[in-house]
Amino acid sequence: MDNQPFTFDIALPGGIPSTYSNHITRRLSSMRGQYADEQTYVALLAGGDALLYEVYEEQVPENAGELLHGISIVHPGKVGDEYFMTKGHFHAEIATAEVYYCLAGQGVMVMETPEGVWAVEELRAGKVLYVPPRWAHRSVNTGSEADLVTFFVYPAHAGHDYGSIEKQGFRKLIVEQGGRPAIVDNLRWLPPEQR
Ligand code: S6P
Ligand code: ZN
For the chain, which terminal residue's Cβ has fewer other Cβ atoms within 10 angstroms, N or C? Predict the structure, then answer.
């Protein structure tokens, strides 16, 4: 049995530091094939390459023993019914965990193991989320107006494996249904033995 993700609350300190040494931006064009409603994705992209999320990182040597950390900001918005989200990844060194602390906004973390065990945990200000080793993770902003802001920290040698997720996405999608976020099946997703 895989370790399960878990969460707990810590009272929120004030302010988001802005002195990080590296700023990464990801736009709609980098999410090709990731949204279920391909037609709406193409139409939106034709209207402009929207900024979906940003990461501010403190650069440290990518060695075991160091901890990479920073702030991730997912902006609000949707592609069709599906909320703006990060690409999502396994760590290349798959047996490495990550801690997220939600500073502001509303959202969820979608997670799954290579075997297809899945979990979705709520992110809101003050919530700590532990992503265990071997769990791929994607943050989703389910708020209608505010940014989803999280602090993250993980082993600096972990690296990122985006390819596995790019092929078919996560098992579960987060969509708006009746004005609220809902977890639905990703119809493109196949269990490992059928890939
Ligand atoms: C890195 C950590 C975060 C994400 C960031 C963007 O291990 O999980 O810094 O990189 O939230 O997501 P992604 O999937 O585009 O790297
Ligand atoms: Zn990660």
Answer: N
The average pLDDT across 147-174 equals 97
Ligand 1 in contact with 107 (CB < 6 A)? no
> What is the biggest distance separating any 2 CA atoms in the chain, rounded to whole angstroms?
48
Q: Write the residue with the smallest CA distance to atom 11 of ligand 1.
A: 72
Q: What is the mean pLDDT of residues 120-136?
A: 98
Residue whose CA is at the smallest distance from ligand 1 atom 2: 152
Going by pLDDT thresholds of 50, 70 and 90, the confidence category of residue 3 is confident
d(CA 100, CA 109): 10
Q: 21: pLDDT confidence band, cut at 50, 70 and 90?
A: confident
Centre of ligand 1 from the C-alpha of residue 166, in Å: 14
181-192 pLDDT, tens digit each? 999 999 999 999
Residue 110: which residues within 8 A CB-CB, separation 6 or more? 85, 88, 118, 120, 137, 138, 139, 140, 170, 172, 174
The ligand whose atoms approach the alpha carbon of 152 most closely is 1
Domains with residue ranges and CATH for the chain: 22-194 (2.60.120.10)
| pLDDT mean across residues, the chain | 95
The residue whose C-alpha atom lies closest to atom 10 belonging to ligand 1 is: 55
pTM above 0.90?
A: yes
Cα 128 to Cα 28: distance, rounded to the nearest angstrom? 28
